[in-house]
């Protein structure tokens, strides 16, 4: 995979938009700590001198999107005027420059709003690269030589777990059989699980209907939100277990609701319902807490899953090292783009932890399918115990939405990273000036935007 | 300490300013990763209906301050219109509300730019409370009943190390002897160490001059920056050791320059110079890495110090639990204000780790003296092995600057948290429109501000 020729690849424009969907109106996506999310994103469009564009986004939950959008504006200076070919030729160097500016790193480093902003920019650059090569992102990654793929990763702070040389060796060991697995993916897709049977805001009747719906669609793994009230959790999980039967899989997700000891006690009491994992039992920063919970729940056959709010590769490294994570739920837009995500996959492979990406929200399903496809073809070489989360929301806004059939993600075929919005979505849901938002403000469905939210408009 | 009466205490205005000092021009503050900082801050002024004001800041390094300023604007909605007395009456509840808004927490949570923004706001509220009580902040804290002080803390995610009840018990055990220690503080101050003998940008001759200067001022503890080049480090540290003699203390600070194994190897080779601690040997997020380094260096008598970039109380909890931190360097403006800092002090006391606050930058010395005074009077009851960092820069901009005499911080006496700027500082150093910045732009000393930096002006 040669880096593209430099001609015409100067980055001449970066546009960023605050896009919000009024999902709180339907109670979709509600969990123990995020009771009323408006699924949103900061959406970046990068334009080259030759007119070609790359599209990238970072998922957000409504309020706060304005901060990520503003931060992207503050990061433009690290990208504008550069030649995209030069970025791809030393992608790790570019990554280090944008994440570790000597002054700006103080306000991270490599975490929170700035890292979300970096993710949107990096995602747009990977989308651009794939488009320039006329390939879906997963094929771009799969077709790279191991040395080339690894050259995009900054190994600072992780060499005690994996070095560049070890990473290359892991990838080389799977090179010979790569083609067969690509063929398998194209013919069979990749297994998905559903999170849509048990959001906290849903009624019992709706839970039952949804179990039946997703069983009929071929799903075998069902995730339920828990954490606010034990009796309610037990009742809803029992109902799901009854509806799906003993041969299917139940996962539960507390979205950080508990302290460490509380998590252990709560889950011991849910153990008779045989959940396969407990997701986000406590603070996403608590490596030692997750390790303690993992150890306590191991005798009950319950694994710990986390990652959607894991700040960066250094935090992932510790979750993987400590035994605090049996299922590694990378998110495609929280850590610093594909470059840093590849580092996490490589560490997970080295330490024998299964990656089951976080998805849902806005565009996350679209992105993670590419990553997991690459993992199967080039790195882990197996789907055993691995699944991609699937939530059937917000896909209609994308030019190249993910397709899930018979509970499997079908191979993306169009060039890029699948996150380009349709023009009418931008026109309707740009916040606060899109036509749908203007209508909803007028109808009193939402309070008008505040000073900061107006500043990016 | 009764919460003040509500009359006139409605918060009617919040102002936030981007204040930057051109410290990069002199090489002050340069270290392995922050090679050219312009010491800066986001500066908040909160105004009550009765006209009284509170002042708070969060330290930054130049670029990126605009993001923190913007984030403070986005957080105004959680503060404006509230009555300050109601906030103080349920300070933990207010803290939870501003740090864990159901939508906004996604862009943190409790870390990075949003948490720095929260810190500036919370610091201004504590300054305001102390002013309303007509006391310096440390006296406000010392005079609080244990139950009242603890009521300001959110214990979520830390109860596996300390509960509210244990915290009250720790404080109660020191109540009887508090008055004596207050008297001692007023008469003797609190010991300081200097970081000013060995910034990386300084010449050998300057290092020697500064050692002599600070020895003459009575200092016994000297910190030197390391991490870029071993030979250079060894030479400079040897020189400092020679100048200060064997009876004084040398600390070294790598500012996150190394990987875990590299840190261990580098420090073993510096061990003959008897450094008391190695500060920030690796990523500030790497709890397990710091624990490994601590264990490896223990036989050499070298402790590990870290904290200035530790994201929140959950990260501090783990550093304290794991043995990864022998010196806990809380920062007054990175984590969520005094409320969260108190939680860290309480955990450190419970787990027998010494707190030696990070200071320097802008306003950090002014703030941490109050915290450490409180710790001695009300919590640890000892100064043994504890010191406050001191850097003699940017104090002249404050209305009530810290005073260090004979290498000891003298008790602050004016009401508040000591971080109110003088009017001429705001006029000169507001970025980018202050008179000094306008002059420096005209003289070509700095590039003009970018789009985002202009947006808050």
Report on this structure.
Two copies of one chain form a homodimer. The first copy, chain A, contains 18 helices and 13 strands. By secondary structure, the first copy, chain A, is α/β, with parallel strands linked by helices. Chain A folds into two domains: 11-161 and 421-455, Enolase-like, N-terminal domain (Enolase-like, domain 1, 2-Layer Sandwich); 172-409, Enolase-like C-terminal domain (TIM Barrel, Alpha-Beta Barrel), CATH 3.20.20.120. In chain A, strands 4, 5, 6, 7, 8, 9, 10, 11, 12 and 13 form a ten-stranded mixed beta sheet that branches. In chain A, strands 1-2-3 form a three-stranded antiparallel beta sheet. The mean pLDDT of chain A is 96. Chains A and B meet through helix 1, helix 4, helix 12, helix 13 and helix 18 of A and helix 1, helix 4, helix 12, helix 13 and helix 18 of B.
End-to-end separation of chain A: 39 Å
Tell me the helix content of chain A.
Answer: 40-55%
Report the portion of residues of chain A in β strands. Answer: 5-15%
Q: Give the overall pLDDT of chain A as a whole number.
A: 96
CATH homology superfamily name of the largest domain in chain A: Enolase-like C-terminal domain
Rg over alpha carbons of chain A: 21 Å
Oligomeric state of the chains? Answer: homodimer
Spatial shape of chain A? globular
Q: Total strand count of chain A, please?
A: 13
* Assigned CATH class of the largest domain in chain A: Alpha Beta
Keywords (chains A, B): Lyase, Magnesium, Metal-binding
Pfam families (chains A, B): MR_MLE_C, MR_MLE_N
EC number (chains A, B): 4.2.1.68
Catalytic activity (chains A, B): L-fuconate = 2-dehydro-3-deoxy-L-fuconate + H2O
């Amino acid at each position: 995979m040669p880096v593209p020729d430099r001609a015409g690849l100067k980055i001449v424009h970066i546009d960023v938009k605050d896009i919000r969907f009024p999902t709180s109106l339907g109670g979709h996506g509600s969990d123990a700590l995020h009771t009323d999310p408006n699924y949103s994103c900061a959406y970046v469009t990068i334009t080259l001198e030759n007119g070609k564009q790359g599209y990238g986004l970072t998922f957000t939950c409504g309020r706060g999107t304005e901060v990520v959008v503003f931060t992207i504006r503050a990061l433009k200076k690290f990208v504008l005027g550069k030649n995209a070919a030069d970025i791809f030729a030393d992608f790790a160097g570019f990554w280090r420059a944008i994440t570790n500016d000597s002054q700006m790193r103080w306000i991270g480093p490599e975490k929170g709003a700035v890292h979300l902003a970096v993710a949107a920019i990096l995602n747009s650059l990977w989308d651009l690269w794939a488009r320039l090569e006329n390939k879906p992102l997963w094929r771009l990654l799969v077709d790279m030589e191991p040395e080339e793929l690894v050259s995009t990763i900054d190994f600072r702070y992780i060499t005690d777990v994996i070095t560049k040389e070890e990473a290359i060796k892991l990838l080389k060991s799977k090179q010979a059989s790569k083609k067969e697995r690509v063929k398998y993916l194209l013919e069979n897709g990749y297994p998905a699980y559903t999170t849509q049977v048990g959001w906290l805001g849903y009624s019992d009747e709706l839970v039952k209907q949804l179990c039946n719906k997703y069983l009929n669609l071929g799903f075998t793994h069902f995730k339920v939100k828990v954490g606010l009230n034990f009796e309610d959790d037990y009742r809803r999980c029992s109902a799901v277990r009854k509806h799906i039967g003993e041969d299917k899989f139940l996962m539960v997700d507390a979205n950080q609701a508990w302290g460490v000891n509380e998590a252990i006690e709560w889950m011991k009491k849910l153990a008779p319902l045989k959940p396969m994992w407990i997701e986000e039992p406590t603070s996403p920063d608590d490596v030692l807490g997750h390790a303690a919970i993992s150890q306590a729940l191991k005798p009950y056959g319950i694994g710990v899953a986390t990652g959607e709010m894991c700040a960066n590769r250094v935090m992932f490294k510790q979750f993987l090292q400590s035994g605090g994570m049996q299922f590694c739920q990378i998110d495609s837009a929280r850590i610093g783009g594909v470059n840093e995500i590849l580092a996490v996959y490589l560490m997970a492979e080295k330490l024998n932890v299964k990656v089951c990406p976080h998805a849902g929200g806005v565009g996350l399903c679209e992105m993670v399918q590419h990553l997991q496809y690459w993992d199967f073809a080039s790195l882990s070489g197996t789907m055993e115990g691995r699944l991609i989360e699937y939530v059937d929301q917000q896909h209609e806004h994308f030019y190249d939405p993910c397709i899930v059939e018979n509970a499997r993600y079908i191979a993306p075929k169009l060039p890029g990273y699948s996150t380009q919005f349709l023009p009418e979505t931008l026109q309707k849901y740009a916040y606060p000036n899109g036509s749908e938002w203007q209508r909803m403000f007028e109808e009193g469905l939402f309070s008008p935007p505040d000073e900061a939210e107006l500043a990016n408009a």
